[in-house]
């Protein structure tokens, strides 16, 4: 009897020593845990092998937008000291801000260990880019029924459709106004073939064409609307996923100033300008972008634009938009009646 007791005691001692030995010799920075359930719904008691994971380098990594990210390295081993494969998930390096690089360990049961490294991408207004073409159109007309007073502000429907076909066939990117602003501020890299389509004034016939074409091509377009001219009804009727309205002022598209083409905006005080702009913002339902009436601007009108909360504003000066530009006096590329497809391609590229 005593002999049996001694044997049982000896077994227990050996068992306890084994447990202590296991606990003292298995260490882990990140522990792999089985995240899959067996098909019978019963939890598995067996733990997967521990994985020790060590990141090289110290603290957050800071780079400038547009610079190459260089991985600092890592060491990943199992409990036996063998190297294990790690999946590295990289963030979008085309946007400034705080990001994370994720390091993931997976085994055959989809068990994983996750570690992260902070990457801080600082803005860069000195990015070397091709620039963004902000296209300035005014009116669309039917080739079979041209207006009596046809001028350079018009573009034929067939010509415009050929241009849209070219953009689709060549997979152009159509950024939002927020993306354009981040691009200007050096906070985002956009594809080299980025383009924005805008029309000034918001004439009813042109809006009807724009509505049809945006639905057909799924290309976003902006109408810079003079909101005094039946603006509320136009916004309610034509606003869509692809057709958005931005301000061309409420009632400042008229003479009265002495700068440039003589638009009244430059003759108004900052307070008067803001009052008009607030009306147009309310009707358009957005303050993302503004087009100066006649392209005229002054220090006071620029100040009114900024105080009204616009992201950006456009003149009629010719050129592309680049990082570091003043967001409240941006150029556009004028599109004119009779332009060929080749001249359009040259202008936007």
Automatic annotation (TrEMBL):
| SUPFAM superfamilies, alphabetized | Glycoside hydrolase/deacetylase (SSF88713)
Gene3D superfamilies named among the record's database cross-references: Glycoside hydrolase/deacetylase (3.20.20.370), Immunoglobulins (2.60.40.10)
Q: Does the keyword Signal apply?
A: yes
| PANTHER family named among the record's database cross-references | POLY-BETA-1,6-N-ACETYL-D-GLUCOSAMINE N-DEACETYLASE (PTHR34216:SF7), PTHR34216
Its recorded name reads Polysaccharide deacetylase family protein
Q: Which organism is it from?
A: Alkalibaculum sporogenes
Lineage, top-rank taxon, reads: Bacteria
An MF annotation (GO) of this entry: hydrolase activity, acting on carbon-nitrogen (but not peptide) bonds
Keywords annotated in UniProt: Membrane, Signal, Transmembrane, Transmembrane helix
Instruction: Tell whether Nucleotide-binding is among the UniProt keywords.
Output: no
Q: What processes does the entry annotate via GO biological process terms? A: carbohydrate metabolic process
- Pesticidal crystal protein Cry22Aa Ig-like domain residues are 53-121
Segments forming domain NodB homology:
190-310
- Give the transmembrane region(s): 5-22
């Amino acid at each position: 009897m005593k002999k049996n007791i001694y044997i049982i005691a000896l077994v227990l001692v050996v068992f306890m020593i084994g447990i202590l030995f296991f606990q003292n010799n298995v260490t882990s920075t990140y522990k792999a845990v089985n995240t899959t359930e067996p098909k019978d719904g019963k939890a598995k008691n067996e733990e997967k092998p521990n994985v020790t994971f060590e990141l090289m380098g110290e603290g957050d990594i800071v780079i400038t937008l547009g610079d190459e990210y260089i991985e600092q390295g890592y060491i990943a081993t199992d409990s036996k000291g063998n190297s294990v494969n790690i999946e590295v998930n990289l963030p979008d390096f085309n946007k400034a801000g705080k990001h994370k690089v994720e390091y993931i360990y997976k085994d055959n049961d989809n068990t994983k260990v996750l570690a992260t490294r902070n990457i801080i991408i600082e803005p860069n207004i000195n990015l070397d880019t091709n620039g963004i073409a902000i296209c300035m159109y005014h009116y669309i007309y039917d080739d079979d029924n041209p207006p009596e007073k046809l001028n350079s502000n018009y573009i034929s429907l067939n010509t415009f459709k050929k241009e849209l076909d070219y953009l689709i066939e060549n997979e152009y990117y159509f950024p939002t106004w927020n993306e354009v602003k981040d691009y200007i501020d050096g906070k985002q890299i956009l594809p080299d073939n980025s383009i924005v389509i805008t029309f000034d004034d918001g004439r009813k016939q042109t809006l009807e064409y724009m509505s049809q074409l945006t639905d057909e091509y799924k290309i976003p377009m902006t109408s810079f609307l003079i909101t005094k001219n039946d603006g509320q009804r136009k916004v309610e009727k034509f606003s869509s996923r692809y057709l958005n309205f931005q301000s061309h002022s409420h009632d400042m598209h008229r003479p009265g100033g002495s700068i440039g083409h003589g638009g009244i905006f430059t003759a108004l005080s900052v307070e008067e300008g803001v009052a008009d702009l607030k009306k147009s913002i309310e009707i358009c339902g957005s303050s993302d972008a503004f087009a100066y009436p006649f392209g005229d601007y002054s220090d006071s009108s620029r100040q009114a634009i900024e105080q009204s909360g616009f992201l950006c504003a456009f003149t009629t000066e010719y050129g592309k938009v680049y990082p570091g530009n003043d967001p409240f006096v941006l150029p556009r590329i004028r599109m004119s009646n009779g332009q060929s497809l080749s001249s359009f391609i040259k202008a936007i590229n």
